[in-house]
Amino acid sequence: DAGVIQSPRHEVTEMGQEVTLRCKPISGHNSLFWYRQTMMRGLELLIYFNNNVPIDDSGMPEDRFSAKMPNASFSTLKIQPSEPRDSAVYFCASSPMTGWTGELFFGEGSRLTVL
Amino acid sequence: RKEVEQDPGPFNVPEGATVAFNCTYSNSASQSFFWYRQDCRKEPKLLMSVYSSGNEDGRFTAQLNRASQYISLLIRDSKLSDSATYLCVVNWANNNDMRFGAGTRLTVKP
Fold first, then answer.
1. At B53, phi and psi to the nearest 5?
2. Is the dihedral of CA A56, A11, B4, B97 positive or negative?
3. How does pLDDT run across A5-52, given as a tens digit for each residue?
4. Could you tell me what percentage of chain B is helix, strand and coil, using 3-state DSSP and rounding each to the nearest 5?
5. Spatial distance between the Cα atoms of B14 and B12, rounded to a whole number of angstroms
């Protein structure tokens, strides 16, 4: 079975450029999460969706960050304009809502470097 | 106070040693607790859930103390393959909002 699929795996961009990260959750999972991981701050929850609806975006750092989930099989996290402090690994995770055991299924992450 | 706090380590132990990790959380309303494992440059994966009465999975034992808002993970007879970062995870406010500790790094040496 396919797991959570993220793209791109690596991105290097220059300050001021727009960055779009993509995620395809596991089929049948109706909760989707975006996390950011840095050495300094660890794994931070940015936003999560239930049934494609954003539930809590209080972790989104600022207006430069936006996330969408237009359908059950696709989500994007956009940073515009990007800054060097946005450099991090961005993880997408999914889980079922019903019968949930507490397990989040993570993608392999998108490693972003902003120069 | 951080939401989920862990000793960052690193813990460097010899094979066969017993090692324990601790974690505290700030939200007394939290209902579910977990330990995840993250290998270097990989994604986190669920290691085990933590139940109120404590639970064991092979060499791994998890404990919960709700009164002190404290979770622990004990690894017995550690193996080289146990080398990883162990993340304490708390389900925030009984929904699927999961908050992660910064992780404790373990290196098991021959």
1. -90, 0
2. positive
3. 999 999 999 999 999 999 999 999 999 999 999 988 889 999 999 999
4. 5, 55, 40
5. 7
- Residue A56 has its nearest CB partner, among B46, B97, B102, at B97
CA A78 to each of CA A21, A62, B7, B63: distance values in angstroms, whole numbers, following the listed order: 6, 12, 33, 39
**A31 in contact with B at a CB cutoff of 8 Å?**
yes
Contacts B103 to A, Cβ<8 Å: 42-43
Rounded Cα distance, B108 and B8, in Å: 15
Query: Which residues of chain B make contact with A103, given a CB cutoff of 8 A?
Result: 34, 46
Instruction: Name the amino acid, one letter, at B41.
Output: R
- Show residues of chain B in contact with A101, CB under 8 Å: 49
What tokens appear for B47 in the block? Answer: 């290691």
CA dist B28 and B93 (Å) reads: 9
pLDDT in tens, A73-86: 999 999 999 999 99
Distance between CA A90 and CA A111 in Å, rounded?
A: 6
Distance CA A41, CA A59 (A): 12
